[in-house]
Give the backbone structure.
Amino acid sequence: MSEDHEPWQSPVHRDLVAELLRMSRRKGLLPPSVGLEKSAFAILWVLSDGRPRTLRQLTEELELEQSTVNRQVNAAIKHGYLERFEVEDSLSKLIRPTDAGREAFRRDGLLRAERLEQVFADLAPGSPEALLHELRAFNDAYERTQDRHGAGRRDSKSDQRFKRGMV
């Protein structure tokens, strides 16, 4: 193995890792006018199907530690984006968006969609459809590899929600 791409098997592997790291630093390519923090947007994304969730359900769907999700939910409640409410015969309170949270999610979602349209207009060569196809294939292969190595099964409902286009 040549030293110019160690520890990767080839320069292509090394360059793919570099591009994935570049992408992870983009933080969603957020325009400066976006008001929601990334964590609040992610929680509101999960709740955008109209179904309230317990903290445990949000933790599972976001694949984060419960203490992290609890902190993020509390911050979103403090900003008026979420609310907790009791359900009869349930020990756990449910979490749902407030009207302000739904509006902030809609506004920021539109801003994110506009930014993606700008990126897609400059995407050459390639197309958003081709990118989606390859990213989905990569993520599916990555998760199959994790499953083979005992990383655990993911919630297929969670996968479907995120495949709707979260940015």
User: Anything to note?
Assistant: The radius of gyration is 19 Å. Residues 99-121 form the longest helix (23 residues). Confidence is low (pLDDT under 50) at residues 161-167.
